[in-house]
Amino acid sequence: MARTLGKTLSSQELDFYRDSGYLIRDRLLGQEKFEALGEHFERKLASLSPEERPEDMDVPHFTDPELFRWLFDEDVLDLVTQIIGPDIAVFSSHFFCKPPRDGKSVPWHQDAYYWRETINPSTEAITIWLAIDPSTRENGCMRVVPGSHLTREARYRDVTRTGSVFDEELDAAQVDESRAVPVELLPGQASIHAAGLVHGSEANLSSSRRCGFTMRYISTEVRFNHEELGHKHQIYLARGVDRAGNVYADPTRSYPELIDNRGRGQSYLGTRRPGA
């Protein structure tokens, strides 16, 4: 499994990402920035109401503009630039927190499937998964199927088992679990994965919490369906210039109406949000 240290990805690392659909980075943020993010998350977690699940902290940047301190971080964007180019938009974010002993599972899926009506092409998004807690086999780390992002055809079905964070999953016949690789991370480490990569995670039945902050990006050459979904979702220009005639939201203001319009606990596509 490839792990990167420096700001610049080598040609071998980029080739690994293109072939495998994912990469692991040993350090994404400076220690002070990372600790500040962790403290910010703990305050948000403590403010959840009793009926809210920790796994449901989706698109927190809509109502918390301070998160752009990390979403627009220069080191993060320098990494993103090497994968998708210099013109970058923030597509989404999510604090994905599995509490100990009853953290929910994530069935096998491809993120692009859930975004097919939101962005075009949906396969061009990337996700940075930054570990706030240790992410291990025991507490339900993400598992990936290397190279699966190169296969476009996919069949989905309703999820049948309880305790899943969303209600559709890849048909089991399309997932070769024998090839699955666990993505174990220490706090501060991060993985990057393509929107077409098959991935998922088991429930957290351990005594330790597992939380990661996902930061999702697209090239501004990707078209966002603002006409139909602008009342439920927005994207933000992070670096460079627009290339597709997109409409961008203001990162300095809060958009609580977006949360209300899409429904609490629901994604802007009307199904449970993708995650890991």
Structural notes for this entry:
- The chain has one domain (3-262): Sandwich (Jelly Rolls).
- Helices cover 20% and strands 24% of the residues.
- The chain is built from 7 helices and 16 strands.
- Strands 1, 2, 3, 4, 7, 12, 14 and 16 form an 8-stranded mixed β-sheet that branches. It has a 4-stranded antiparallel β-sheet with strand order 5-13-8-11, with no helix packed on it. Strands 6-15 form a two-stranded antiparallel ribbon.
- The longest helix is centred in the first third of the chain and has 16 residues, at 31-46.
- The chain starts with a strand and ends in a 14-residue tail after the last helix.
Query: So what's the oligomer here?
Result: single chain
Radius of gyration: 17 Å
Tally of alpha and pi helices:
7
pLDDT averaged over residues? 92
**Biggest beta sheet attributes:** 8 strands, mixed
Q: Per DSSP, what share of the residues sits in E-state strands of 2 or more residues?
A: 15-25%
Gross morphology is globular
Number of domains: 1
- Classification by helices and strands: alpha+beta
The helix content, as a percent range, equals 10-25%
CATH architecture: Sandwich
Low-pLDDT regions: 1-5, 268-272
CATH third-level topology: Jelly Rolls
CATH homologous superfamily caption: q2cbj1_9rhob like domain
Distance between the termini: 18 Å
CATH top level is Mainly Beta
Essential attributes:
276 residues, alpha+beta, Jelly Rolls, 8-stranded mixed beta sheet, 7 helices, 20% helix
